[in-house]
Design brief:
Helix content is 19%, strand content 42%. With 363 residues, it is of the alpha+beta class. The longest helix has 14 residues.
Length: 363
């Protein structure tokens, strides 16, 4: 079995994991492959053996049995775009924060590799969406996460109407609108207030971005519906094909006034049988618990004279990453109404007195 490695080199642990992965694959009789630039980078660090002389993942995918994504969920989506066109499955090793899609943890590599080698996996079908511009006859590339239409730079608000199978749903004034797949419901749509959807659903999620109304809410449409957007002005179109790894902006389609959005099906993933699979509901629950369990920390920076020059508080992520809130910089004296007046650290919380605005607390 030939496995195409799709690493995200921005993740701190990628190089270490690649070395371990290639050793384990060799021992199991699996052939590791990569595009030329990745292979050369790995060979320069003594990581291998790795086959392949392809220029791009799109060129390499048809010659491999599956794609192994190494990174976060965005890396999986990036890999899936290449895999879907070649009809190959993709499976992800999680080096991100949680892993809605990248379900293999580094410590589970050997067990999963054995199952993949023995064919003990199922393909999961995920849905993509595609948009067509009826008046211009143009189309955007398919999106496994979402397609986003936003106001033009010269506009204060985007003004548009949404139709479902030709029937008017509502008139919107907003910064834009997100059309998301169920897979993409945990990405931009979630941040904009949309629901988390089971990825097995065949549906289209529509989430207005900052609508100028308290009555406007996200809506879910059946996958057999055709959603039409009609705008009085121009909109900008962005296709989120690859999550954190890539954002494709269709500059030539910036004057969008009339378009349709439809659902399409693609075989996205390979899930090992009888393996502990973290479904989307469990993943959301786990994410909430993990956020609650992260211990708070306090960092004090000192200047050359040994006086406090920087105060930062946040929650540690347990993997070397952290969420940090910088509360003050140079000149932290509490005079002139702007500085840190006191810091108190208690079990489970940090309280920082900031004069004269009161107390900021993480608990």
């Amino acid at each position: 079995m030939r496995i195409l490695l799709m690493p995200n080199f921005t993740k701190p642990r990628t190089w270490e994991l690649l070395g371990e992965l290639c050793r384990r694959m060799g021992a199991l009789g699996l052939q590791a492959a990569a595009v030329r630039k990745d292979r050369e980078a790995m060979e320069a660090l003594g990581i291998g053996p790795v086959a392949g002389d392809w220029e791009s993942p799109e060129e390499a995918a048809p010659f491999c049995d599956l794609l192994l994504s190494i990174g976060g969920d965005g890396t999986v989506i990036h890999s899936a775009c290449c895999a879907a066109q070649a009809g190959k499955p993709v499976v992800g090793v999680n080096l991100g924060r949680l892993g809605f899609l990248a379900e293999i943890e580094p410590g589970e590599l050997e067990r999963y590799l054995l199952r993949l080698r023995d064919g003990q996996f199922n393909r999961e079908k995920r849905f993509a969406i595609q948009s067509r511009f009826s008046q211009e006859g143009q189309s955007l590339p398919f999106a496994l996460n979402d397609i986003v239409f936003t106001k033009a730079p010269e506009q204060n608000l985007a003004d548009f109407e949404i139709f479902c199978n030709g029937k008017l749903i509502d008139h919107y004034c907003a910064d834009g609108v997100i059309f998301s797949t169920p897979t993409g419901s945990t990405a931009y749509a979630l941040s904009a207030g949309g629901p988390v959807m089971d990825p097995a659903l065949g549906a289209i999620l529509m989430v207005p971005i900052c609508p100028h109304s308290i009555a406007i809410r996200p809506m879910v449409f059946g996958g057999d519906k055709t959603i039409t957007l009609r705008s009085g002005g121009s909109l900008q179109a962005d296709v989120h094909r690859a999550g954190e790894a890539q954002l494709q902006t269709c500059g030539e389609l910036q004057a969008v006034r009339f378009l349709t959005v439809q659902l399409a099906g693609y075989a996205l993933g390979a899930a090992a049988k009888d393996a502990p699979h973290l479904d989307v509901q469990q993943a959301v629950s786990h994410q909430v618990r993990a956020a609650e369990e992260r211990p708070p920390f306090l960092r004090l920076g000192l200047d050359g004279e040994g006086e406090i020059d920087l105060v930062a508080v946040g929650y540690g992520a347990g993997d070397g990453e952290a969420e940090v809130l910088v509360l003050g910089g140079e000149g932290l004296d509490a005079d002139e109404g702007g500085g840190i007046a006191g810091v108190a650290v208690h079990p489970g919380e940090i309280a920082v007195q900031y004069a004269p605005l009161g107390q900021g607390k993480l608990s």
